Structure formats: C-alpha cells, structure tokens
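Retro notes, structure queue

What went well: the backlog is down to a handful. What didn't: a couple of records were mislabeled last round, so from now on we paste the full input next to the output in the thread. Example, using Aspartyl-phosphate phosphatase Spo0E family protein from Paenibacillus albidus:
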Amino acid sequence: MELEISLYQGLEQARQELNELEQRYGLSHPSVLRQSMLLDEYINQYNRKYYMQITNRTRKSDRSLNEELVPVHSRLYRNSNTAS
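Corresponding output:
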C-alpha cells in the first residue's frame, strides 16, 4: 500500500514539475523532455503494477471457477458413462 501511495505521489509530482517546466521553457526545451521521460517512467511503473493486480485477480477468480467446475464436470462425466 505504501508503495502505491509513493508511486502515485511521485507521478503527481513529476506531472506538476513537467507543467511548470513547459510553461517556463516551452515544449522543446531539454529540461522539459527529460521531465517528460521521467513522467513516462512513472506512468509505466503504475501501469505495470495495475496490470499485475488485474492479472492476479483474474488468476484467483479463474482458479476458484475451475475448482467449482471440476466437481460438476466429473459428475457429468460419470453420469454419461453410466448411461451408456
């Protein structure tokens, strides 16, 4: 949780700094470009973390769904074999 907060705070700080630099120097100044790349890195880190959380949630729900379906599948398989 602390990592999420510090990552978000870093992202917001980098965004604010980029806005200030852009207003002071314009878009093509090297300082603005460096800050933009730093902000991109924060965004990439945030997206990777978010993607990992979504992936982990999906895997957990897939596992629980599979655990629920396996008994049903085995009962259906047994019933179809005994009916023959």
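Agreed that this is the format going forward. Reviewer comment attached to the example: The helical segments are 2-25, 30-83.
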